Amino acid sequence: MFLFGVLLLAASAYGQGSIQHCIHTNAEQLSADVVIGKVMNDMDTNKDQYISDLELLIEFVGRFDSNADSMITREEFIPKWHEYYKDVPEFAEYLFDHFDRTNDGFLGLYDVPGLKALVDLDTDGRVSEVEFTIYMTHLYQDCVPHSHKDPTA
């Protein structure tokens, strides 16, 4: 029953505001749940099924910050997301826009509180695996599935 309540809350919370559509394709045809599982596994370094602020920063700065300035640009994030998780660059850009809570064109320390507030559905100050999965699933489901067509066909 609790999980149903969380899902209802998530549906209403994420259903608010303008809908930004995108196109999702994965170069290795990985499903959204497989990619989300990989991301969660990469972020949850201590395997406690929660993502701490530190784990989030370590994942993003360590994996995506090519020039080590602690500010991940769109140009750094998009090709790295594609490299690690095989989602097409257009989808990685869509994710970047959702992760950039300060709308300053960078992912960094100041985006963490806004992102955490959005994802932490039960407002206990921690982001659980379930909450993270709900948030990411919503982002994937907002996209229109698309397969690359061979222009010569």
Question: Can you walk through the features of this model?
Answer:
- The structure is a single chain.
- This protein has one domain.
- The strands form 3 sheets. A two-stranded parallel ribbon has the order 1-6. A two-stranded antiparallel sheet has the order 2-5. Strands 3-4 form a two-stranded antiparallel ribbon.
- With 153 residues, it is mostly helical.
- 53% of the residues lie in helices and 9% in strands.
- The protein starts with a helix and ends in an 8-residue tail after the last strand.
- Helix 1 packs across helix 7, helix 2 (32-43) runs antiparallel to helix 7 (129-141) and helix 4 packs across helix 5.
- The model is unreliable at 1-20 and 146-153 (pLDDT under 50).
- The chain is built from 7 helices and 6 strands, in the order H-E-H-E-H-E-H-H-E-H-E-H-E.
- The longest helix has 13 residues, at 2-14.
Short description:
By secondary structure, this protein is mainly alpha-helical.
The percent range for helix content is 40-55%
- The count of DSSP E runs of length 2 or more, i.e. the number of strands, is 6
Helix count equals 7
- Contiguous low-pLDDT stretches (5 residues minimum) are 1-20, 146-153
Strand arrangement in the largest pleated sheet: 1-6
Give the DSSP E fraction (strand runs of 2 or more residues): 5-15%
**Largest pleated sheet:** 2 strands, parallel
The overall average pLDDT, rounded, is: 82
Instruction: Give the topology string: H per helix, E per strand.
Output: HEHEHEHHEHEHE
* Overall tally of structural domains: 1
Secondary structural class? mainly alpha
Based on CA inertia axes, which overall geometry fits? globular
Cα radius of gyration in angstroms: 15 Å
Distance between the termini: 50 Å
